[in-house]
# Entry
Amino acid sequence: MEPVEQEQVSGRELNAWRRGFTPQAEIWNGRLAMLGLSVGLSVLLIARLAHS
# Structure
């Protein structure tokens, strides 16, 4: 197999808000998923601590 060439992408380009099936959209999807998971777990923890 031949090695796949990867192009260098600047940090500003990587953080761009792009729609569709792009690497930028996947990065934002992961960030928002982690934010949602963190908020959900925080709410559960606070609710459990408040109930005790």
Notes: Helices lie at 11-14, 23-51.
